[in-house]
Amino acid sequence: MPPPPIPENHKDQDHMQLLSIFHYVMAGFALLMIAGLFLHCQPFFMVTESGAMNLGQVKGPNGEIRTMQSAVNHQQVMETVTSILMVVYWVLGVLSFLACIGNFLSARWLTRRKNRFFSLLVAGFNCLNIPLGTALGVFTIIVLQRPAIARSYRSAERSAPQILPA
Q1: pLDDT tens by residue, 46-77
Q2: What's the pLDDT tens digit per position in 12-23?
Q3: In sequence order, what DSSP letters do the residues of 24-54 get, joined into one string?
Q4: Which of 158, 58, 53 lies closest to 113 in space, CA to CA?
């Protein structure tokens, strides 16, 4: 004889708990991304700024160092590439930081049944993070669209203490 089915409310609570845990995990992955960006960019910028890329410098017959014209062009290209990569690193770092904060807040608010719309926004943003973020984002959207979950958010908002301005 099969076990009796779990009541829908219990399933919803389990799914919300899982969503909260997975949003914390995604926040941790975003922190790892920031650390990875830092570890990746440090050696690159140290090499380019230390002058280790001085290709095209040759010693003349009297021992003086001559710079060939192609080396000057190479230096200009390296400065341009370094500037572009600096912007890319900053953009990725800011997006990872926002993903970390957003997932952390969403995880906290999922357990408290607060800010449903914010969690939906974070879920949409997570869908851009293929493949794990997509799975989490779609699962979050599906669960938060359930009528029972929407009712639990409304009841939690009504029961929350109201702070009136002085």
Answers
A1: 776 665 555 555 566 676 666 555 555 667 77
A2: 889 999 999 999
A3: HHHHHHHHHHHHHHHHHHHHHHHHHHHTTT-
A4: 158
Element of type H or E holding 59: strand 57-59
| Residue corresponding to tokens 């974070």 | 122
Residue 43 CA to its chain's centroid (Å): 22
Strand partners, 65: 59
Q: Which of 119, 110, 124, 122 is nearest to 152 (CA)?
A: 110
Using CA atoms, how far apart are residues 151 and 153, in angstroms rounded to an integer?
A: 5
- Taking the domains of the chain in order of start, what are their residue ranges? 15-154
What interhelical angle do 116-126 and 69-112 show, nearest 10? 140
How far is 156 from 154, CA to CA, in rounded Å?
Answer: 5
